[in-house]
Every structure is written in structure tokens, then in C-alpha cells.
Design brief:
This protein has two domains: 104 residues, Winged helix-like DNA-binding domain superfamily/Winged helix DNA-binding domain (Arc Repressor Mutant, subunit A, Orthogonal Bundle); 131 residues, no CATH class. It contains nine helices and eight strands. A five-stranded antiparallel sheet has the order 4-3-2-1-8, covered by helices on one side. It has a three-stranded antiparallel sheet with strand order 5-7-6. The longest helix has 31 residues. It is elongated, with a radius of gyration of 23 Å.
């Protein structure tokens, strides 16, 4: 059985201070010894902003270090994490002050990389399955577009308006699912942040589609379809849980300043 180690976990990364390693799932992430020390220090003090002077005094001690060397070290860490100074998910620059590690950090005993990798893979597969289910829903809505427009048109006062709304929602939903599906399929490092920024839009679109069984219940007579409404309404939150399982609680607020 693989050994369980004590380390820090944030997003899809594991920082093992004992083994002096940074892993993304089962893959080792290359970092220079000094970059690893800076990252560890920022993670260990993630509750506050760490000044540049503090970093230099703690990690370089009696060695003379220019401000540019520290900026380059932080830049190397950002590249390793797939982070962006403008839209920081992990390290935010506090202009003329220092840096702060802003991602949610879990400490203590965590799953070894082999098991963590399986958990991420399962979460991503479930997320992709849900996207395929939504695409099927949009396809069915377009297939029965005429009947659905007749029902919706009674409430909107016109069949033409209902047609436009249904087609628009189907196209927006399809574009959203294909985009998110591609991000997860290619395991893009910005997936967590992109999902967080799109979540309000997805929530509104999905809640509208949660009412779609009402459009077919009258014509088909299958009123048990109404039981699907709560499941569809909860869909956005289940997807957010899966994204957090695979990519962590990525910060979606814009970064402050540049390195």
C-alpha cells in the first residue's frame, strides 16, 4: 500500500516539504531549490501578505539579493503552477508590499499521488458525462422544438418569441458545454478559474433549462418528468463540486499588480 505523507494540498497540487517535492497528481513539477523554498514559505504563511523584505531575510539570510531575483523566482513558481499575475489563482502580488498565497490550502495526511490521480480522473469523467447529458437535453429540445414552442408560446403571448428563446438558450448552452468540456478534456490549468467566472452564467442558463420538463409533460402525459426538475436545478452545484474535486477552490478574483 502506498505511503500516506503529510503535506500541503491546494488545487491539483501537493507540496511535500519532507520530500522537497511539488506534484500535480502523480507528476513531479520541476522547481529550483530556492523557488521551492519561496513557495513553501508563502504557503505556510498563506493567512497574510508576506513582504519582499521578509522573504529575503528568511530565505537568503546574509546573501545579497536584488529585487529582480525575487521577482524572477516568483515568476518561475507561477509558471510551474500555471498561474497568471493578472488573474492570480495561487500567488497574488500586493503592489509595493509583497506576495500572498491565496488558494485554499489543506494540511495534514492526504492521499498519495497514485490515489489522488484516480480521484481527479473520476471527477473529470463525471463532469464530462454531465456535459454530454446537457448536450442531449438541448438536442431533444431542438428535435421537439415545434411542440415546446407551442407550450411556451402560451405564456409568452407568441410562438415566434418562444422559438427564438428556445433556440437561443440551446445555442448558448451548447457553446458553454463544449467550452467547459474541452477545458476539462485537455486538463487545462486554468479550468478552475474559468469555471468560477462562468458559473453565474451557467447557473442562470441551467435553472431555465431545469423547467424544460414542463414543456413536454402536457403533450406526452408523462407528469413523472416533473421529478427531473429538482435534479436539473441542482446540476450546476454538482458540477461545481466536481470541478473543485479536480482543480481545487481556485481563486477567481483578479490579481493585484504584477510581479
Amino acid at each position: 500500500m502506498p505511503e500516506i505523507t503529510s503535506c500541503y494540498q491546494f488545487g491539483e497540487f501537493q507540496l511535500d516539504t519532507g520530500a522537497a517535492s511539488l506534484r500535480r497528481g502523480h507528476q513531479e513539477v520541476e522547481l529550483s531549490p530556492k523557488a521551492f523554498q519561496v513557495l513553501t514559505y508563502l504557503v505556510e504563511h498563506c493567512d497574510r501578505v508576506v513582504s519582499k523584505q521578509e522573504l529575503v531575510e528568511a530565505l537568503w539570510k546574509d546573501t545579497f539579493v536584488t529585487d529582480d531575483a525575487l521577482v524572477q523566482t516568483v515568476g518561475a513558481i507561477r509558471r510551474a503552477l500555471g498561474d497568471d499575475a493578472e488573474q492570480a489563482r495561487y500567488i497574488r502580488t500586493r503592489h509595493r508590499v509583497g506576495y500572498q498565497f491565496i488558494a485554499a490550502v489543506e494540511t495534514g495526511a492526504v492521499l498519495p499521488p497514485e490515489i489522488a490521480s484516480v480521484s481527479r480522473r473520476t471527477a473529470r469523467r463525471l463532469f464530462l458525462t454531465i456535459q454530454a447529458g446537457y448536450l442531449l437535453l438541448y438536442g431533444l429540445a431542438l428535435f421537439f422544438l415545434a411542440d415546446a414552442a407551442d407550450v411556451l408560446g402560451r405564456f409568452l403571448g407568441g410562438r415566434e418569441a418562444a422559438l427564438v428563446i428556445l433556440v437561443f438558450l440551446a445555442l448558448v448552452g451548447t457553446a458553454l458545454r463544449l467550452y467547459l468540456g474541452a477545458m476539462v478534456s485537455f486538463d487545462h490549468p486554468q479550468t478552475g478559474a474559468k469555471f468560477a467566472s462562468l458559473f453565474p452564467v451557467m447557473l442562470g442558463v441551467d435553472w431555465l433549462w431545469a423547467l424544460s420538463p414542463l414543456l413536454s409533460a402536457e403533450s406526452t402525459g408523462h407528469w413523472e418528468l416533473l421529478a427531473v426538475i429538482p435534479m436539473l436545478a441542482y446540476g450546476p452545484f454538482s458540477q461545481r463540486t466536481l470541478i473543485r474535486s479536480a482543480y481545487g477552490r481556485a481563486a477567481d478574483s483578479p490579481g493585484v499588480g504584477r510581479s
